[in-house]
Please model this.
Amino acid sequence: MTDRDIRDISDVDAVVLDIEGTTSATGFVVDVLYPYARERFGELLAARGEEPSVARSVAQVRAEIGEPDADAARVEKVLGEWVDADRKATPLKTLQGILWAEGFARGELVSHFYPDVIPVLRRWHADGVRLYVYSSGSVSAQRAWFTHSAEGDLLGLVSGLYDTENAGPKQEADSYRAIAAATGVAPGRLLFLSDRPGELDAARAAGWRAVGVRRDGEPYADADFGDHPQASAFSEITLAARSSS
Model:
């Protein structure tokens, strides 16, 4: 914790969670989930291209690259390039989410959470704090992630899931305004936890509270969090007794 950290955060009705680098290790996503989906893109595009979510994603890829007639092989190649560049493109995340959800359901994947996260989430939930997720990963991937943890099904802790498709880009304040409107929680009573300063800035611009999560070994561990309060573990964040609005 630093001198700018807030140990007791009062008047919070809901906490919105980033996943990668915040609740969970980026390395797990990069080293396990990305290869899992990448190996299966070709089969998904070839065998299930007529499924609405797959067809919509393919159309979005074609529009993004300006190639309306791109075939499945070309789309697969682009998806691989986006994975290499760690692009947060919505069609990529949608297709990854489809494959990951199926992998979790088959027991081939089990999600990762840092040890400090789940006990705190359970305590906040028991205390009446509503929990939401806002991740660049698709809603289907988020749902699978929380359902198939090493400690069992955690989805019951979560009141709603948001991604770049149903909320918008994570570094734009309007996305956070949209989430506040959807949840019905006043912006000043929403707390966002993320490892990325640009996301924290966007949340604060929308009137939210925001805390940077700085974990050793994560890509943004040495980032400049400005004047955002910081924590290295969820156990360092205490939500004080909430007063009525």
Remarks:
- The first strand starts at residue 8 and ends at 9.
- The radius of gyration is 18 Å.
- Confidence is low (pLDDT under 50) at residues 1-5.
